[in-house]
Design a protein that fits this description.
By secondary structure, this protein is an alpha/beta fold. It has three domains: about 180 residues, P-loop containing nucleotide triphosphate hydrolases (Rossmann fold), CATH 3.40.50; about 80 residues, Helicase, Ruva Protein, domain 3, CATH 1.10.8.60; about 55 residues. The protein is built from 15 helices and nine strands. The protein has a five-stranded parallel beta sheet with strand order 2-3-6-1-7. A two-stranded antiparallel ribbon has the order 4-5. A hairpin with an 8-residue loop joins strand 4 and strand 5. The longest helix is centred in the C-terminal third of the chain and has 20 residues. The chain starts with a helix and ends with a helix.
Length: about 350
């Protein structure tokens, strides 16, 4: 099975430059047995990437164990990761094997590691250093051989600066790094993803006829901002197919109805958003970029209606966005008067 087919088989779809870079990062990580950190926004497929690394590695025939570190309390997470002995706490009537032991000779995927408490971080760091775990309530260490792949949608450098994430653990887990691109960074992949998700949901629904999506509807989906990334696109396609009869065309009107009611401002192309930026003879690159940012902000604000909504769309604090705009305006004024 070639690499591209293997990735497609688990749902990693796309031919864009951003996806070509991602494929190279996956292949590089798969050739090694070092710890790896996958970064990217929520919904970009970080667990799929972790599975792809595992499936292309020398551990492919061994277990792949996944856990969301943000879904459990500190105590439960520790018990799940390292296990516990009988009598370790009330209700521990028998010993429990942890996920590190279950992943022995295979791979353990620690999703949302940025949510892990500092106490658990200390214990995880020791596991990475000693290749051994100590169950809750136990006194003996148990050797484990599990490759660790972690993922986060947080900026761990910011978390380190804020004292919420250990710097020494960061360097332990980020020996190799993989970055999953946001869907808005690879719009050329959206038609491929639409086709992939449509065919999959039709199989699950046992549709007798395939759905056809009109070109205008595809264009509308390609022009959407997709704050929820691929996960959101999949959800939209599934809803479209579920509410359409077998073989019915999917139109631009049905596409827009399937998107959140508050999302009309997030269509960045195909509408009234026309970005016009002039480049003047004496402009520097900074001048051009500042003017482009201000122009884009004005176009987005026309669609959102308010500065606050624009900041929300751009995923930035409204005050921080205002400060950036003011600095850009000031630089342009200073350059003009120089």
């Amino acid at each position: 099975m070639n690499s591209e087919f293997a990735l497609r088989s688990i749902g990693i779809i796309g031919d864009s430059p951003a996806m070509q870079v991602l494929r190279c990062q996956i292949e590089t990580s798969a050739r090694s047995d070092l710890t790896a950190l996958i970064t990217g926004e929520s919904g970009t497929g970080k667990e799929l990437v972790a599975r792809a690394i595992h499936q292309q590695s020398a551990r492919a025939e061994m277990p792949f164990i996944s856990i969301n570190c943000g879904a459990l309390t500190e105590t439960l997470l520790e018990s799940e990761l390292f296990g516990y002995v009988r009598g370790a706490f009330t209700g521990a009537n028998q010993k429990h094997q942890g996920l590190f032991q279950a992943a022995h000779t295979g791979t353990i995927f620690l999703d949302e590691i940025g949510e892990m408490s500092t106490a658990c971080q200390v214990k995880l760091l020791r596991v990475l250093q000693e290749n051994a775990i100590r169950p809750v309530g136990g006194h003996q260490e148990i050797p484990v051989d599990a490759r660790v792949i972690a993922a986060t949608n947080r900026n761990l450098n910011h978390e380190i600066a804020a004292g919420r994430f250990r710097e020494d653990l960061f360097y332990r887990i980020a020996v190799l790094t993989v970055s999953t691109p946001a869907l808005r960074e690879r719009p050329s992949d959206i038609p491929l993803l639409i086709e992939y998700f449509l065919r999959r949901v039709e199989q699950r629904m046992r549709c007798k006829k395939q759905h056809h999506m009109e070109e205008a509807a595809v264009d509308a989906l390609c022009g959407y901002f997709w704050p929820g990334n691929v996960r959101q696109l999949r959800n939209v396609i599934e809803r479209l197919a579920a509410h359409a009869d077998d073989g019915d065309p999917l139109t631009v009107a049905t596409v827009r109805r399937a998107l959140p009611a508050s999302a009309n401002y997030a269509f960045l192309t195909g509408g009234s958003a026309n970005l016009h930026v002039s480049f003047y003879e004496n402009d520097s690159l900074d001048d051009f970029l500042d003017r482009t940012m201000l122009n884009l902000y004005e176009q987005l604000r026309k669609q959102t209606g308010t500065h606050t909504q624009t900041a929300r769309l751009l995923r930035i604090d409204r005050v921080s966005l205002y400060q950036r705009l003011e600095r850009a305006r000031l630089r342009i004024q200073q350059s003009a008067s120089a």
